Amino acid sequence: MAEESTGAATAAVTSGNGKTRLTSADVQAGASTARAGKRAGNPYLPEIASVVEIMQETPNIKSFRVRFDDEEAMRAFSFEPGQVGQLGVFGAGEATFAINSSTSDKDYVQFSVMKAGEVTAALHELNVGDKVGVRAPMGCGFPVDAWKGKSILYIMGGIGSAALRATINYTLEHRADYENISILYGARTPLDLTYKYNIVEWEARDDIEAVITVDREFPGWDGRVGFVPAVLEEMAPKPANTIAITCGPPIMIKFVLQSLQKLQFADDQIYTTLEKRMKCGIGICGRCNIGPRYVCVDGPVFSMAELRELPDEM
Predict the structure, then answer these.
(1) Residues with Cβ < 8 Å from 155, sequence gap 6 or more?
(2) 13 has which bridge partners?
(3) How far is the CA of 162 from the CAs of 82, 84, 290, in angstroms?
(4) Which residues contact 87 (CB under 8 A, 6 or more apart)?
(5) What architecture is the 46-138 domain classified under in CATH?
(6) DSSP strand pairing (12-14 vs 20-22)
(7) Which sequence spans correspond to the domains of the chain?
(8) In angstroms, how far is the first alpha carbon of the chain from the final one?
(9) Torsion angle, alpha carbons of 286, 287, 292, 297, to 10
(10) Residue 231 and residue 238: Cα distance in Å, rounded?
(11) What does DSSP assign to residue 144?
């Protein structure tokens, strides 16, 4: 168990890949991670929150906006785009999901959940007003500050959009800090596209490029048809001064990485997130390790340069 904090200045250690890890000396006794804000609270203690809005994104994906019952905890909460949290239903369990609200949203925290197992099924049964437990934020985010002055290319498929939505929102809210911004998003059918309200906004903007595609022809769909990797190669983005971020089904990521290599993107220009491998979220259970790294502590955000140094488990 974590030791009680003495209130001293935050102590931290740097892991082998240069990312900062909190230590037991950082724990603020009696506080959840969310309540402690920038300092680490008790990582086992969920913050109680109420469901304030539910959006049916696709037939099997719902987005939940939750608000901490403690107003001080809500005001203190902050996260980096790309960080994740554990969302739980009491009596059913908890699971890891990307925080996909905007970092500027202070009224709620949003998670998107695909119905796939016992915990996600229990989450899908929730109604507005129901209580949930939240352990967040966890992991590291995307290095959006280091990307300033660069072009950003988002490549995502299906529910992979949830892992990138907060980062997309961040770069759009700070549009002047970045050069070109392109979003390539694909799904099996139009029914499987999440955040349709955001897609409308992306396509209406003249300062970004938004390409939306589906895998095959679909009744009523007059948009792009084609698999994401093939469409990416047709777009032929230039790698110069560009960062590519991808998330989606593993098979999509595999072929997207091959396409990026064909387009001559270097490994240190490509990022992805592996939050689906996370279990406990705090480096205790050891079930998310890839070689010497723990996805929940050293990630979930990794560059391909970092992943190349690890066993091939993509």
Answers:
(1) 184, 228, 232, 244, 245, 246, 248, 256
(2) 21
(3) 10, 10, 23
(4) 64, 66, 94, 95, 97, 111, 113, 123, 132, 133, 134
(5) Beta Barrel (2.40)
(6) antiparallel
(7) 46-138, 151-273
(8) 32
(9) -70
(10) 14
(11) T
Angle between helices 228-235 and 250-262 (to 10 degrees): 20
Query: How far is it, in rounded angstroms, from Cα 235 to Cα 12?
Result: 43
Rounded Cα distance, 193 and 231, in Å: 16
Contacts of 169 (CB under 8 A, 6+ apart): 81, 102, 103, 104
> Residues 134-189: pLDDT tens digits?
999 999 999 999 999 999 999 999 999 999 999 999 999 999 999 999 999 999 99
d(CA 309, CA 292): 10
Token code pair at residue 256? 């997207």
What pLDDT score does 8 carry? 32
> For 58-101, how does the pLDDT look when each residue is reduced to its tens digit (9 = 90+)?
999 999 999 999 999 999 899 999 999 999 999 999 999 999 99
Chain-centre distance of CA 231, in angstroms? Answer: 23
Which value, in Å, is the radius of gyration of the alpha carbons in the chain? 19
CATH no., domain 151-273: 3.40.50.80
pLDDT tens digit sequence for 151-160: 999 999 999 9
pLDDT score for 36: 60
Give backbone dihedrals phi and psi of 242, rounded to 5 degrees, phi first: -120, 140
Using CA atoms in the order 163, 249, 153, 111, what is the torsion angle rounded to 10 degrees?
-10
> Closest by alpha carbon to 248, among 282, 215, 272, 222?
272
pTM score, two decimals?
0.87
